[in-house]
Amino acid sequence: MPEGAGTGHVLNKYLYGPRHPRTGGGSRDASYPPAVGAVARSRPDQNRYNFRLLAVNGSLFAVGGHSLQTMESYNPAQNTWTLAAPLPDTLVEFSACESLGRIYVIGGYTPRGRNMNVLRYCPAVDEWSVFDICRHHVRKQQMVSIEETLFLVGGFRRDSRTGESEDSLSVHSYNTDSREWNCLKVNTSKSGLSVSCTLHNDGIYILSRDMNPNTVGRHRIFLKYCVFTGVCEYVRGPPTEGNNMTLFSMYLPHPP
């Protein structure tokens, strides 16, 4: 994905992702169907940077973006974009994910300061609400979900009680039923920034960088966090080339 463009998502065996047009500002939405290996393009009504693209109930939602409070939904069957209810506030450095047909937004900054709210969007009524309050502020994290549980991976966390901040590769969970937070894993030798992750089968696959002083963040690492056992293990063969990578999980068709 281009730097600053936003995230991508898989929907109905298609990979959708933002890209910068060759001329002009903003981003487009491109889809990659692996069966034919072609790329199709559709353009949202508004140019967006650093937004979140999520699949919810058969539609795609482009959430926020730099200096944008709006949200748009995309219908793949009709190839059309429509405006949805805007975010309660403009956000930057936030993250979002889908859980049980709803969108959850956590972290980042509003124009007035740190966003401590857990925001929830219900597509059925096209409405945002403040769902909960975070105990710690976090920014630039990644999020995935399994049923009612959200997993926050990496990011830069600040303890609201002590004022201490840390950049470490951590995994936290948030249960949307009980509204309980849990710290599942912390590794201070790995960077929590510039993290990409995806959920595949029983694990969260994480692409990060080593914080060893000798490598100064140049050493890329590929990890798997098992959500059922809590074990974090190295995966062989991380990609060595490229920047601003985004991980996806999708099942490719078998060749005839």
UniProtKB/TrEMBL annotation:
InterPro entries, A to Z: Kelch-BTB_domain-containing (IPR052392), Kelch-typ_b-propeller (IPR015915), Kelch_1 (IPR006652)
Keywords, in A-Z order: Kelch repeat
Keyword Cell inner membrane on entry: no
Keyword Magnesium carried by entry: no
Domain of life: Eukaryota
Region annotation (Disordered) ranges: 12-35
Entry-linked Pfam families: Kelch_1
Signal peptide coordinates: none
Annotated protein name in UniProt: Uncharacterized protein
